[in-house]
C-alpha cells in the first residue's frame, strides 16, 4: 500500500487526506494545531469579489484563470474547483452543506454587511437576502458577541446586490444558557441548544414577540452536535429561521471541522496532531521523510508522496523576517510573487498588499514548481493557502482554492503511485 504524508489539518489537508485514504493509500496527517476551519464562517467561499461582487463563481473564475496566469485558479481550473465542491458536498451531505458552484448566496454578517458565499449550512439559507424581505434580528442579552441593533440598522440602510432593500427590525431576549451565568459564549449557547428542553423554553419566550411574515435571524449558536436544532427551533416558532455566524471561534466552523475529522478517521487516516513538522530528508531530489517535534525526541515519518497543506502566513507556513525576506518554513520552497516590488505599502485602504499573493507555484497536478517552471521535488504536492497568486481574503476564494487543489493533488498522487 502506498504511503502518503499530508501536512496540515485545515480544509485542504482533511479533504485531501480523506480522498487519498478512500482511494487506497495509507495516509498520515500531521498537524501542529486543530486547523483553521473553526475560525471561519462554516461556509465555503469560491469567489466573492473580482473586485466586483460575484454572482456565478465558477463562470467568473474561468475568466480569471484565462486573464491571470499567476492565479491558483489558472492551475486548478473551473473543472477542478467544481470537482472539489462536489466531493465535499457528497462527503458531508445536505445536513451540513447546500448550494452549488454556479450561485453565491448573499448572507448577512455579524456587523450587518452582506457576504457572498457558495456553499452554506442549511441553517443559513433563509438568510439569503432578497428585496422586500421582512426580517427580525434577535439577540441574546447574555451573548455579548452579537449585537442585533448593529446588524439590523446596517442591513436596513444597505442596497442589496440585486437592488432594493429589506425591512428589518431587532429585539433582544433574555434566555440564559446556564443558570447564574450573565456573560455566556457562543459555544455555551450552542451546547444549550443541543438540549430539546432548552429549545422549548427559548421558542416559548420568543414566539409572542414575532410578527406575521417575519424571517428570524439568530446568532449561529443553534446547536453544536444536533444538526436538526435550527429546524426544530423554526418549527416551534412557526417562522423561517437563519443563523448569522459570529466572530471566531465559529460554531458552524466547528460543525464542519468535526464532520471532516470523523470522515477522515472513518476512511482510515492516521491523525498525528499537536506537533510541528520541522525538517525533511531528501534523496536524489525526492522527499524521503519529514520530522516532527515531540516532547520526547524528534520523529520521522517516511512516505512515497507528500502533500503540503499547511496554509500561508496565518499558520506560520510562510514567514517574513525583520529584513523583509519571505520564506516557506519547512521545505525552503521557491516562492512566487517576491518580484512585485515592495511587498507591503502604507496605504491601508488602497491597493492590495503584494505580500498576500506570495506563495508556491504549482503545476496542473499540484506539484510544486520553481521559477523556471521545473518540478522541485517529484513527489511533493501542495494544496490550499500555501499556493500563491491570489489575495484569498479579499477575493473570498480561499475555500475554492483549498478544495480544488486538494482533490487534484489527491487524484494526482493516487495516479502516480498506482
Tell me what the structure shows:
The chain has 418 residues and is of the alpha/beta class. It folds into two domains: 3-35 and 254-417, FAD/NAD(P)-binding domain (3-Layer(bba) Sandwich), CATH 3.50.50.60; 110-244, no CATH class. 29% of the residues lie in helices and 19% in strands. The chain has a five-stranded parallel sheet with strand order 9-2-1-13-18, covered by helices on one side. Strand 11 (286-292) and strand 12 form a beta hairpin. Helix 1 runs parallel beside helix 8 and helix 6 packs parallel to helix 7 (229-237). The radius of gyration is 22 Å and the shape is globular.
Strand content: 15-25%
The CATH H-level superfamily of the largest domain is: FAD/NAD(P)-binding domain
Q: Which structural category do the helix and sheet elements fall into?
A: alpha/beta
Order of helices and strands: EHEHHEEEHEHHEHEHEEEEEEEEEEHH
CATH topology of the largest domain: FAD/NAD(P)-binding domain
Amino acid at each position: 500500500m502506498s504511503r502518503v504524508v499530508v501536512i496540515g489539518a485545515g480544509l485542504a489537508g482533511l479533504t485531501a487526506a480523506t480522498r487519498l485514504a478512500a482511494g487506497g493509500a495509507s495516509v498520515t496527517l500531521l498537524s501542529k494545531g486543530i486547523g483553521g476551519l473553526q475560525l471561519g464562517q462554516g461556509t465555503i467561499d469560491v469567489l466573492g469579489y473580482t473586485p466586483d461582487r460575484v454572482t456565478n463563481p465558477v463562470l467568473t473564475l474561468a475568466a480569471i484563470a484565462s486573464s491571470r496566469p499567476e492565479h491558483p485558479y489558472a492551475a486548478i481550473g473551473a473543472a477542478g474547483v467544481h470537482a472539489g465542491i462536489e466531493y465535499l458536498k457528497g462527503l458531508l451531505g445536505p445536513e451540513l452543506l447546500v448550494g452549488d458552484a454556479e450561485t453565491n448566496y448573499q448572507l448577512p454578517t455579524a456587523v450587518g454587511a452582506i457576504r457572498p458565499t457558495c456553499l452554506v449550512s442549511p441553517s443559513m439559507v433563509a438568510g439569503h437576502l432578497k428585496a422586500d424581505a421582512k426580517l427580525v434580528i434577535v439577540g441574546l442579552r447574555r451573548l455579548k458577541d452579537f449585537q442585533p441593533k448593529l446588524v439590523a440598522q446596517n442591513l436596513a440602510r444597505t442596497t442589496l446586490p440585486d437592488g432594493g432593500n429589506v425591512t428589518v427590525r431587532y429585539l433582544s431576549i433574555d434566555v440564559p444558557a446556564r443558570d447564574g451565568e450573565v456573560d455566556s459564549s457562543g459555544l455555551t449557547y450552542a451546547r444549550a441548544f443541543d438540549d430539546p428542553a432548552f429549545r422549548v423554553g427559548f421558542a416559548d419566550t420568543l414566539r409572542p414577540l414575532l410578527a406575521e411574515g417575519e424571517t428570524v435571524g439568530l446568532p449561529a449558536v443553534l446547536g453544536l452536535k444536533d444538526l436538526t436544532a435550527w429546524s426544530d427551533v423554526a418549527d416551534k416558532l412557526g417562522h423561517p429561521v437563519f443563523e448569522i455566524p459570529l466572530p471566531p471561534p465559529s460554531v458552524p466552523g466547528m460543525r464542519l471541522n468535526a464532520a471532516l475529522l470523523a470522515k477522515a478517521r472513518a476512511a482510515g487516516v492516521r491523525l498525528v496532531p499537536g506537533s510541528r513538522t520541522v525538517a525533511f530528508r531528501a534523496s536524489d531530489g525526492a522527499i524521503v521523510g519529514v520530522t516532527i517535534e515531540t516532547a520526547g525526541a524528534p520523529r520521522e515519518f517516511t512516505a512515497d508522496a507528500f502533500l503540503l497543506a499547511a496554509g500561508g502566513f496565518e499558520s506560520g507556513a510562510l514567514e517574513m523576517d525583520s529584513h523583509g525576506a519571505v520564506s516557506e518554513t519547512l521545505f525552503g520552497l521557491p516562492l512566487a510573487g517576491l518580484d512585485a516590488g515592495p511587498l507591503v505599502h502604507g496605504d491601508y485602504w488602497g491597493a492590495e498588499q503584494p505580500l498576500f499573493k506570495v506563495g508556491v507555484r504549482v503545476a496542473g497536478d499540484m506539484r510544486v514548481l520553481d521559477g523556471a517552471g521545473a518540478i522541485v521535488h517529484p513527489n511533493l504536492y501542495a494544496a490550499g493557502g500555501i499556493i500563491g497568486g491570489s489575495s484569498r481574503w479579499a477575493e473570498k476564494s480561499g475555500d475554492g482554492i483549498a478544495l480544488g487543489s486538494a482533490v487534484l493533488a489527491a487524484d494526482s498522487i493516487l495516479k502516480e503511485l498506482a
